[in-house]
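Example 3.2
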Amino acid sequence: MPDNRTQNQRQQRAVTALAAMLAHGAREGLPALHWSVNMLSDLIGDVHGLTATLAEQRAAYEAWCDYLGAQRWAERTDSNGTTHLHAVFTWADDDRVKGAIRARLFPGLDAESTA
């Protein structure tokens, strides 16, 4: 495991990249994601599903994946019917910055959000 100084530098690099990504997202009208930096300094962008339809969530996932050139993994649906989307990326401006875009599409959400 890297020492604290190295880990902090990596996290700062990730946050700097995230600031650039968010600025681009704002200019281009990309939907907001829930972003975090994990202990390995990876950026994780989670699609927010509480106020969006399933189609809107999938569109948000696709838009960010397209912008970041993310490699999409095969979708999977669990026993509850929830579809899991996951893609990984390396930041084009600094290949030391890596991350993932994720979405969980819960069945029945569209019916609930329109009720």
